[in-house]
Amino acid sequence: MITISCTKKLFELSPFVEEQDNESNDEFFKWHANVFRMAKKNNLIFMNNRTRYCFILFGIKKEHFKNFNELFIKSLSENLRAEGIPDSKINEYVSKANSIKFTKTYDRSVIGSMTDMVKMTEFLIEDYFPIQEMNNIDLNKKNNHSPIVKLKNFPDRLMKEALGI
């Protein structure tokens, strides 16, 4: 099971039902998510709790929440594939995502890292205008190759290590 900890702002925008996080799952299967405005659109950022690997979906609309689980899995898979991670490792990770639980945020460190990543995206986004696709893989790759001071490493490298590559 994947757990996505959502900010209050995201719960207000989405139809997600908040559940209690009473499971002691590995932090590798827990993510934080937030909604933010940029380029006159609502956008979502997802960040893995352990590795700080993240991806941003640009131009999110209410209709995207209807098949949200599929959207999350598809976007995550595309970004991992772009990092050169073999399909076998991606499928192994995604197979544990048979269901997604939505909880409230609890880790201020992850929230701080997400805020930093959004600020970095503000500097980088001009090179990608106009954004045609919701999942801008090149921009996400660049974000994931930015060092996270708290972890003293890069999110893309940490994700590969966690997946056993």
Automatic annotation (TrEMBL):
Residues 3-150 form the DUF6933 domain. This is DUF6933 domain-containing protein. The lineage of its organism: Bacteria, Bacillati, Bacillota, Bacilli, Bacillales. It comes from the Bacteria.
